[in-house]
Amino acid sequence: MKDFSEGLVENMMEGILTDDLDGRFTFANAAAAAILGYDSPSELVGMLWTAIVPPDCLAVLAAVNERRSRGLRERYEVDLICKDRRRITVEITGGPRMEGDRQVGTMAVFTDITERKLLEQLLWQTKVVVEHSPVALFRCDAKAHCRMEFVSDNIARSGHTRDEILAGPLALYALVHPEDRQRVADELARRAAAGEDAFQLTFRVQARDGTVIWTESYTEAVRADDGTVAHYQGAWLDITERKALEERLLQAQKMEGIGRLAGGVAHDFNNLLTAISGYANFALETVGEKHPVAADLRGILDAAARAADLTRQLLAFSRKQIFEMKIVDLNDLIRGMGKMLRRLIGEDIDLVVVPGAKPATTRADAAQIEQVLVNLAVNARDAMPDGGTLTIETSNVVLDDAYVRSHPGAVLGDYVLIAVTDTGVGMTEEVKSRIFEPFFTTKEPGKGTGLGLSTVFGIVKQHEGNIYVYSEPGVGTTFKVYLRHAAESAQPLPDQAEEEHLVGGTETVLLAEDDLQVRQMAARILRSLGYTVLEAGNGAEALQIARRQGRRIDLLITDVVMPRMSGRDLAQRVAGICPDVKVLYVSGYMENAIAHNHILDEGTHFLQKPFARRTLARKVREALDA
To answer: What is the C-alpha to C-alpha distance for residues 149 and 163, in angstroms, rounded to an integer?
Structure first.
């Protein structure tokens, strides 16, 4: 019987080790030696447990031995070190070894579970990855309703739990958005009938709370022996964010296309408005204010001015305006606009202007920031048909990591903030998502162009700033405009009142303009102011005139965009002939021809079309006297 038991022990698949009370091995079977990488069991006999247990596991071993000394048997896991220094994980079942009533040591029966532990860890990691990924796994039958047979836990994004789907009547089509169900069913049937075993579908899933989840399904048809489809299985990928990004990209491309069109239309229209306004002014000067047609001429001028405002909005939206950037204190700016804004919004709306305690200085085109405030004030006025309060305030703020993470487009740094708040009707989320789109308006037909807020957006972006809107229906709206803070002191804002007396001169002006009506009108104004005017229809003609005149040209007035030669190129070549010549650029819009990112270089003189006689006179004088 003893020989039988010894043979049984020697032939066991599990390793067996016995030790004495000092923890020294007294016996090892062949399996123990094989598991630990020794050539024979005798190599283990006489060794201590501490020789094969890693230092970081000795505490586990001590605790186990303490319990065994009290006669307890238990099962536990511990790492062991093999002869070749490999580290393995074993599961040990052990207890005290007795001779009569006296404990003489312990016995441990152990199994190598290293591969099992690695597999368990891999399965756990896979489960974590799957359950925290946007991919949900599924399997359903191929009958009429495609009853679900398996789904991974992260299907819970649909608002339904895994157990609920598997236990209840919910099928594949019950999870698909109602508007997409028939299409998905037809597509599955068509693909399967065509013999396709793997295909991709895109559809919407409607969550229990009504949320729409865009889903890309990678589906495989599992066929029975007779070739019919028995099951569908595969993965659902949540592509909601991707679809949102695609929509934003399409929207950006659409707005870019509209911007190009708007810029081109504004350019051509500005030439016409310049001529219309100029010749209407000439006619009014000729007939006098008391003539019967004077009122009609003033009507033409008013209409032209409104049209010019519209083209400025188109240019702001298309980001093709030229900005004359200076250091501006927004506190001074909003104080100076108070009287005008009060007239604009009406008596039934209270205007509260709250300048910041410290200078709110930024590098900006003051006229364009004024345009932003005017447009926001008009928008607020229309949101308060029964009256209310409009508050405009400024402050210095710091945009930190937390703010930047939660506000797309924001950049870390010091900013000045203009906040425009009304107590009006507020906006829904749908309206908020579209308010900066060109031509989008909630007003009645004929009540607005839909360009006001898109103009604001374009101006802010050209200033490398950001604008955000906060609104709820019935609560009101706040627009927050963030512009980069500038440490320099602000320059005095120009006096808005126009001069009563036009100042001319006797200098020689070379006028290069490819639009005949604009050129003739501008030349007529300049000659009436005393200047000698040399007209050129393009760059080549202007160069010929400059060569004939030699150094006797004081000012070059040139359109920026002309056929075959840009205004900048012309100015450089004329400067080679007349080194002291001053330059005044004129255009209805620009495409980096004289500006960097649509911002004028220091010392560059620019006149925006359409222009009035008074503005042309002032700009010419400024350029000549610079």
So the answer is: 11
